[in-house]
Amino acid sequence: MSVIRIKIMAVAFDNVTMDEAVGYAMEQIQSRSKCMVVTPNAEIAQACVTNDKLRDIVSRAGLVLPDGIGVIYASRILRRPLKGRVPGVEFGENLLSALRDTGKSVYFLGSKPGVAEEAARRMQVKYPGLKVAGCHDGYFKEDSQAIEAVNAAHPDALFVCLGSPRQEYFIDEHFQELNATLMVGLGGSLDVYAGKVERAPDLFIKLGLEWLYRLLKQPSRLGRMMKLPQYMFAAFRWRIRGEE
Description:
By secondary structure, the protein is of the alpha/beta class. The protein is built from 13 helices and eight strands. Helix 8 links the parallel strand 7 (157-161) and strand 8.
């Protein structure tokens, strides 16, 4: 399956639906073609404007998914509309569903001690037949500790939930060293899978207001949420200037 990549300011996103993204990921796993998947939202995309290292890593990824509603709005402002959001947390769970009963396995890396294990337990209950090769928390002092644990488990898919940009740096730096085919940066998804963090109600998600729900629940996120309007204003500037 071929995908079309559309440039939205500093980041070129793959123009795919959720089903297409999961289908592409499964193709890579089945063919054993090593692939990195990133899921930039407006905050990460905005960071790519000034963070050359992160921008280069994202541009090299095999699959770049538009996680946030801000990215979709920006694509419309620039008259390069993407098909729609492909939230990382939903992509991860849809991939887990696709993996069950295939004999292919997943490894959970990240979050606080015990969270990955609880996420694995819950996902295996929700998706009978899902094979979890192993788990490791994100509080390792040396990357080698996590790498050894992952490689000993030989997973087909690796969910790296260390937050951005740490997770992107980790995957990129150890891409060839890690014995996993598909490596996905999924931020705080393990906390959601483990039931430690609740997603916004369906109405908020449908209306593209998940960011507002998070802000209402955690006012301390205001500083981070300011990246969204900054990203939107940047899109308007790019359109006015006619930048490519």
